[in-house]
């Protein structure tokens, strides 16, 4: 789905593509999630990394992009790098190397200590925010500094989803992009890429319970929810409208 | 091999086998032997494994223990009694364990003092020691445990969970190696659930560890089928069933039981009048006896009855409540008072149904249907001081379906027809725990381990594939090599066919997480942004989207649930589809349901002879014809009840000319009298568990065929589909087409698909995952709350499905839901009989719901003490039915 003349949301994937930068944007991978859970006694089968590699493979095939931007939370644990994370980070790095892709990351508190491995991973690490072209990339846990020429802000952090009740009465939760404005600058919120990062239903909870401080100053109800799932990407319209169904 | 003990032994023969001091003590304290003792003393002395079934108060406990005590005093007199465990006694209740301990301490002391008196100082010289007894449960202090390790009791009284820990305790297990006897008490409360399955594996493992045979003794008051219980008790040696003698003394206690209605007319009598009559009846029964035990079916009912009895008749401290929501202390206090005979009346939900000696109760009153013959007998059997006295019980019933149900239930009790219990087979979660336990003790050859597991009755049919799949799962083979160190609970070499311990953590995991009882959870209920209260998880599991239930006096529609939260909106309808006590309500057993169906057939047949051209022809109109009266007179009911049953069947026959039976399902297309709702009512009397399966399968196929959404209510007497606009019609052809469609896919497959995304699946999966050690409640110092477990388990289910839809933990979840929540085997049986026309179906269209369906469609209100709206609605329905019946009568004239 085309968002602007320069930005495309890849069909059925939680991935955006910026033509002018030849860059894929993804967010919130939470590598090592299962390992972290296993350390606490819940032994989840490992599916996260596999899903991510599949998705990235598809996105690279579709676009032949040469760069990837990760808007935060590449891994799961704050305080350390645990073995499982390291293994998965290296697997991801090897995969990207094989595809000859340059990778950049906006660092967050989940991403502590990644610098240690950035060389091995060929990872360019930005602190707090990255400005490339007219685009401002940041995670979303704090407000960024907006430059004069910024034409679009892109963030992660929120793991937005929408809840839809189907005809059979079953409720489904779909990951979504959110697209609207912040201080009259276009704002794109990325869906989480992590398999287990199912997030919150933005059309079910009050705005005050959202994670990102960004939503304290912008009306989430006026943003559009663009859902991703079942192989397609569909604009569901404004969050305000979705609250009614 | 199983064999039934045919003839009791003479008292002299039975006593002759006992140690002289034990014999002296017994004859001094008891005049003669009770029926089970006449068999058990001698057989146990001969080292025969024994299943004893006998009613409460029949000296069952002593029948098992006395020969063992006798043997131990023999050892003692020979100076060879050691500080070892000779007998392990297991019961499901800690309270019962404490009781047994108290009750055995006295004979042990008294026998020993007889010996002391006679032997004097020889006691020391010949090293004649006292036979000891000790209790070990989760409540046992660290200090006591340590003492037992150093000086183990000769008779060890314990629970299934504590036994499982002991067999994995390297030091303590040494003390068990001399065990000669295992007693399993209240076997009916174990053999029918996963705790019992767990115990069966523990016992089998113990046999392997100690390397010699043990005498197995099982006891239960209400057991059927006995063969099944005996197989559970003794298990197999390879393909060969081990020997067991069955002693059936279950009917040595006489029953004096009756179902009754406090009022003549169950429909039009005013609610206050019914209540007055009900409590007056109760009061007069309580006043007549010394101690009366009242069973209600729910906790709230218990409180309400206590409140009313106190308020109306001024019973002060003489009356008490006893149920699961009360603290342990207050329950114990009530039990003590009861034993002392200090209470005039105790009201209980289910908690006093089994176990410990509760002293002299001379009357049992049951309010509403207990839903199973076994339970009815268990409860009524609490009355009567000893096995020789008559157990006196009354069932007070307030609606006509309950009345028929209770009548047939008591009739079955008098005829000795019990409900069958079923042992869960091949439960993978319980086995997973034991495989981890086994891996801790030694390195196992997988074939050898598989053979051991198959020696237990619950796993005798386990496939090798399932066993291997479990080993792979436990070895962590569902994740990459580098993670198995963390994921693996056992070490497994598939090529060599061996498994064993992995790491030091495995033991801690096993010890801290074993057991089969899921944690209880409260679910928060939200309406809009407000939290309005909480419900039990069991209750939530029963809810389907769109179900209406009451909470805090208001009606709510269930929208969705997420984790430990449930979201609802206020409902505009007047009736709930799920009653508030639903999760507490036990389903009607399949056997009893069939008995009721047979009665319906028989009685409707007799009554039908008096109906000509849609009119009732009786020598004297509106009176019960003599032949019918005589027939009803053979049932255990009072006069009011007789009239109520007669009226009920007559109305149904006059209204629509058809009474559904166990061999004829009646499908009634009709509509609601107050709204636009169309009903398709399946009068299928098979119990809720079977109907749950049948209703889902029918609804899936029908809503597909008619492409419409169908609402569904499931009860014991049938199930009801409803639609708002579209009229639902059913006929022979369509019915057969539905059956064919279900057969084509297979009902199991259909149900599996249907429950895949439901609440019950998610939540049962969590419980199974916890039992299978996939979610650890207690790990490396983390204690994971159920709330977190729930969140995790949803992710877990999704991820596990993705790697393998046949993952053992998922497979077990389906098995549990289909066989324990629902009753798939019997649902399949009904389908088979429908296909080969052993069960027929008949289709009728009625202008308003027929009398037999009234309680089904107002099912949400069907509590013992009825709600007002339901009565109003029922009366309105009934009035319309009667008008139609009379109207036909008049035009005929």
The secondary structure category of chain B is: alpha/beta
CATH domain class name of the domain at 2-248 in chain B: Alpha Beta
| Percent of residues in beta strands of chain A | 25-35%
- How many runs of DSSP E, i.e. beta strands of chain A? 15
Uncertain spans of chain A, ≥5 residues at pLDDT below 50? none
Multimeric status of the protein: heterodimer
The CATH topology of the domain at 2-248 in chain B is Rossmann fold
Low-confidence stretches of chain B: 860-866
Let me know the average pLDDT of chain B.
88
Query: Could you name the CATH homologous superfamily of the domain at 2-248 in chain B?
Result: P-loop containing nucleotide triphosphate hydrolases
Order of helices and strands of chain A: EEEHHEHEHEEEEEEEEHEEH
Greatest interface and its residue counts?
Answer: A-B, 27 and 34 residues
Gross morphology of chain B is: globular
Overall 3D form of chain A:
globular
Helix content of chain B: 40-55%
Which value, in Å, is the CA radius of gyration of chain A?
17 Å
Please state the second-level CATH architecture of the domain at 2-248 in chain B.
3-Layer(aba) Sandwich
Fourth CATH level, the homologous superfamily of chain A: Metallo-dependent phosphatases
3D architecture notes:
The complex is a heterodimer of chains A (245) and B (893). Chain A is of the alpha/beta class and 245 residues long. Chain A has one domain (7-244): Purple Acid Phosphatase, chain A, domain 2 (4-Layer Sandwich). Chain A has helices at residues 33-39, 48-63, 83-98, 115-121, 214-217, 239-244; strands at residues 7-9, 16-18, 23-26, 67-70, 102-107, 123-127, 129-132, 135-138, 152-155, 160-165, 171-182, 185-189, 200-201, 224-229, 232-238. The model of chain A has no long low-confidence stretch (mean pLDDT 89). Chain B contains 34 helices and 33 strands. In chain B, a hairpin with a 2-residue loop joins β31 and β32. The longest helix of chain B has 26 residues, at 94-119. Residues 860-866 of chain B have low confidence and may be disordered. Chains A and B meet through α1 and α3 of A and β31 and α30 of B.
């Amino acid at each position: 789905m085309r968002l602007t003349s320069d930005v495309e949301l890849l069909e059925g994937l939680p991935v955006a593509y910026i033509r002018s930068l030849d860059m894929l944007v993804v967010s919130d991978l939470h590598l090592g999630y299962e390992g972290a859970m296993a350390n606490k006694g819940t032994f989840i089968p490992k599916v996260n990394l596999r899903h991510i590699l599949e998705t990235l493979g598809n996105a690279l095939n579709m676009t032949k992009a040469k760069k990837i931007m990760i808007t935060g939370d590449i891994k799961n644990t704050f305080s350390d790098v645990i073995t499982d994370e390291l293994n998965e980070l290296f697997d991801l790095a090897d995969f990207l190397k094989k595809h000859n892709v340059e990778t950049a990351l906006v660092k967050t508190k989940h991403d502590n200590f990644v610098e240690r491995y950035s060389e091995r991973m060929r990872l360019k690490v930005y602190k707090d925010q990255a400005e490339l072209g007219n685009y401002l990339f940041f995670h979303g846990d704090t407000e960024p500094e907006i430059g004069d020429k910024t034409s679009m802000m892109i963030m992660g952090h929120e793991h937005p989803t929408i809840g839809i009740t189907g005809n059979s009465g079953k409720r489904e939760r779909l990951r979504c992009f959110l697209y609207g404005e912040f201080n009259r600058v276009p704002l794109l919120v990325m869906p989480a890429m992590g398999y287990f990062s199912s997030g919150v239903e933005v059309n079910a909870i009050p705005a005050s319970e959202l994670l990102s401080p960004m939503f304290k100053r912008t009306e989430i109800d006026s943003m559009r929810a663009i859902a991703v799932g079942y192989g397609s990407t569909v604009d569901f319209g404004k969050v305000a409208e979705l609250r009614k169904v | 091999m199983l064999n039934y003990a045919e003839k009791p032994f003479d008292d002299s023969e039975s006593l002759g086998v006992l140690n002289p001091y034990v014999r002296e003590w017994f004859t001094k304290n008891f005049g003669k032997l009770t029926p089970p003792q006449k068999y058990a003393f001698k057989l146990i002395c001969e080292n025969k494994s024994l299943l004893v079934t006998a009613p409460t108060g029949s000296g069952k406990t002593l029948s098992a223990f006395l020969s063992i005590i006798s043997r131990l005093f023999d050892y003692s007199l020979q100076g060879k009694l050691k500080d070892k465990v000779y007998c392990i006694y297991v019961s499901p209740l800690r309270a019962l364990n404490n009781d047994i301990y108290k009750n055995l301490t006295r004979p042990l002391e008294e026998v020993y003092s007889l010996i002391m008196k006679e032997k004097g100082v020889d006691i020391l010289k010949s090293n004649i020691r006292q036979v000891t007894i000790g209790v070990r449960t989760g409540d046992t202090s660290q200090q006591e445990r340590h003492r037992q390790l150093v000086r183990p009791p000769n008779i060890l009284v314990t629970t299934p969970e504590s036994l499982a820990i002991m067999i994995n305790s390297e030091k303590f297990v040494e003390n068990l190696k001399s065990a000669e006897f295992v007693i399993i008490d209240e076997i009916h409360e174990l053999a029918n659930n996963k705790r019992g399955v767990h115990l069966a594996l523990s016992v089998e493992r113990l046999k392997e560890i100690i390397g010699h045979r043990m005498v197995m003794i099982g006891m239960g008051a209400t057991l059927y089928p006995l063969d099944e219980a005996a197989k559970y008790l003794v298990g197999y040696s390879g393909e060969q069933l081990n020997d067991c003698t069955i002693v059936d003394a279950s009917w040595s206690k006489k029953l004096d039981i009756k179902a009754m209605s406090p009022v003549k007319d169950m429909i039009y009598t005013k609610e206050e009048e019914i209540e007055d009559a009900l409590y007056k009846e109760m009061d007069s029964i309580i006043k007549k006896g010394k101690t009366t035990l009242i069973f209600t079916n729910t906790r709230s009912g218990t409180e309400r009855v206590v409140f009313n009895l106190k308020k109306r008749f001024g019973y002060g401290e003489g009356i008490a409540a006893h149920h699961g929501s009360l603290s342990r202390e207050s329950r114990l206090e009530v039990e003590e008072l009861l034993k002392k005979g200090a209470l005039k009346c105790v009201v209980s939900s289910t908690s006093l149904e089994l176990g410990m000696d509760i002293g002299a109760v001379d009357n049992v009153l049951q309010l509403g249907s207990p839903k199973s013959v076994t339970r009815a007998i268990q409860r009524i059997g609490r009355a009567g001081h000893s096995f020789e006295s008559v157990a006196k019980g009354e069932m007070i019933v307030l609606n006509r379906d309950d009345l028929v149900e209770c009548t047939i239930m008591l009739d079955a009790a008098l005829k000795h027809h019990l409900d069958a219990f079923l042992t869960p087979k091949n439960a993978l979660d319980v086995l997973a725990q034991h495989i981890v336990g086994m891996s801790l003790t030694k390195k196992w050859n997988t074939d050898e381990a598989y053979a051991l597991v198959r020696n237990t009755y619950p796993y005798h049919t386990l496939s090798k594939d399932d066993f291997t799949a479990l080993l792979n799962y436990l070895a962590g083979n569902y994740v990459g090599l580098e993670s198995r160190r963390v994921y693996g609970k056992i070490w497994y070499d598939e090529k060599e066919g061996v498994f064993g311990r992995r790491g030091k953590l495995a033991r801690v995991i096993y010890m801290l997480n074993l057991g089969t009882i899921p944690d209880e959870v409260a679910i928060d209920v939200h309406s809009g942004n407000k939290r309005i209260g909480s419900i039990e998880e069991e209750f939530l599991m029963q809810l389907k989207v769109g179900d209406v239930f009451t909470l805090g006096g208001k009606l709510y529609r269930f929208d969705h649930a997420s984790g430990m939260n449930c979201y609802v909106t206020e409902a505009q309808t007047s009736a709930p589809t799920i009653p508030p006590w639903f999760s507490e309500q036990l389903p009607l057993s399949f056997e009893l349901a069939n008995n009721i169906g047979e009665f319906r057939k028989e009685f409707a047949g007799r009554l039908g002879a008096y109906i000509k051209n849609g009119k009732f022809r009786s020598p004297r109109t509106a009176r019960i014809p003599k032949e019918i009266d005589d027939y009803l007179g053979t049932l255990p009911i009072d006069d009011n009840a007789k009239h109520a049953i007669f009226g009920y069947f007559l109305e149904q026959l006059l209204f629509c000319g058809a009474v559904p039976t166990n061999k004829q399902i009646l499908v009634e297309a009709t509509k609601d009298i107050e709204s636009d709702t169309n009903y398709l009512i399946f009068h299928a009397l098979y119990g809720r568990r079977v109907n749950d399966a049948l209703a889902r399968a029918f609804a899936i196929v029908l809503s597909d065929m008619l492409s419409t959404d169908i609402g569904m209510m499931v009860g014991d007497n049938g199930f009801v589909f409803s639609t708002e606009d579209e009229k639902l019609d059913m006929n022979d052809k369509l019915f057969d087409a539905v059956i064919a469609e279900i057969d084509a896919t297979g009902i199991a497959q259909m149900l599996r698909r249907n429950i895949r995304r439901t609440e019950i699946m998610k939540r049962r999966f969590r419980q199974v995952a916890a039992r299978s050690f996939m979610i650890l409640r207690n790990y490396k110092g983390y204690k994971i709350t159920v709330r977190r477990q729930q969140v995790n388990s949803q992710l877990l289910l999704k991820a596990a499905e993705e790697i393998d839809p046949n993952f053992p933990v998922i497979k077990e979840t389906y098995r549990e839901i289909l066989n324990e929540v629902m009753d798939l085997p019997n649902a399949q049986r009904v389908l088979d009989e429908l296909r080969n026309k052993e069960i027929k179906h008949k289709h009728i269209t009625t202008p308003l719901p027929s009398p037999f369906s009234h309680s089904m469609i107002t099912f949400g209100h069907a509590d013992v003490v009825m709600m007002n709206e339901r009565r109003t609605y029922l009366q309105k329905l009934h009035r319309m039915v009667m008008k139609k019946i009379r109207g036909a009568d008049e035009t005929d004239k």
